[in-house]
Amino acid sequence: MKLTNQIVIEKAKELGFDLIGFASAQTLPDETEHLKEWLANGYHASMDYMSRNIEKRFDVKNILPYARSVISLAMNYYTENHHKIESNESTRLGKVSRYAWGKDYHLIIWEKLELLEEELQKLDPAFECLTYVDTGPVMDKVWAKRAGIGWLGKHTNIISREIGSWVFLSTVITNYEFEYSKPVTDYCGSCTACIDACPTKAIVNEFVVDANKCISFLTIENKGEIPATFKNQFDDWIFGCDICQDVCPWNKKFSIHTYQKEFEPSGNKEISLNEIEEMTAEIFKQRFETSPIKRAKLNGLKRNASFLKM
Ligand code: SF4
Ligand code: SF4
């Protein structure tokens, strides 16, 4: 059976994806130039992997030589829960970014992408693809924009008019031809709420985030010390930071509760700073085994907890 956009959309929706778009597998000259500029400014901090495989990021045919289309998928992870504030020093809590409140999205989405590939191959054995969830040399946000999932906000997250920016993106590179979606207009307009609200001034320009200043990078990917210049600027974030997305009017208006039960908070919405400081490697492993929080490692969390207490 010949696959159509409609068939892919139906199958992806049955699996729980909220938005699905299609783009032609063309090269990305402008976007690659922006990436190179960003790297040249050192805004990637210690994330050296961002500078590797540029030729694959530029042209997905360097990943899948017979690629014809890129399918972008978005899954909503918003839940109507908010952080608890605890002002008592002895029971002080560190805030965790929304994306890490439930089970690790990689585990959930990898499984769903495998099922999607299987389903589509059953319908047409000629369908071939390679799938990515926020890993590998693929510019997920660029493809989401090209595939009409949403526009790139000034905070550099993709925003959908239907559900806001609390979405996990995945990218499917395929040998199959589809009808291509129209990119969405940029609706940021004259708004600068995210830029104004960022406590560390990490959005150094519209659409440009300097990871060296971003709480998200500093508390998760960063392996070194957190510079003392950021003292008292972390607003109690111990893992990640959601401020620029929390203040975005599109999230205030259009966020809707996810259907995915696994993204509901599972005891990791906040973490006690004292508990982290006393945590053993064994407890860390047990507690965060299937959580994105394990990415920061125990040493990283301990560093963050002591930094918040400084
Ligand atoms: S995640 Fe936080 S620190 Fe990073 S740009 Fe957004 S508001 Fe600023
Ligand atoms: S807060 Fe305003 S400027 Fe920032 S991404 Fe949202 S709409 Fe765009």
Describe the overall structure.
With 310 residues, the chain is α+β, with helices and mostly antiparallel strands. The protein folds into two domains: 151 residues, no CATH class; 117 residues, no CATH class. The chain contains twelve helices and eleven strands. Strands 1-2-7-4 form a four-stranded antiparallel β-sheet, with helices on both faces. It starts with a helix and ends with a helix. The structure holds iron/sulfur cluster (2 copies).
Q: What oligomeric state is this?
A: single chain
String of helices and strands: HEHHEEHEHEEEHEEHEHHEHHH
- C-alpha geometry: globular
Amount of helix: 25-40%
Q: Order of strands side by side in the largest beta sheet? A: 1-2-7-4
Number of helices: 12
Mean pLDDT: 96
Small-molecule binders here are: iron/sulfur cluster
Largest sheet: 4 strands, antiparallel
Going by helix content, strand content and strand pairing, the class is alpha+beta
Using the CA coordinates, give the radius of gyration: 20 Å
Strand share of the residues?
5-15%
Q: Count the domains.
A: 2
The N- to C-terminal Cα distance equals 63 Å
What is the number of E strands?
A: 11
Poorly predicted regions are none
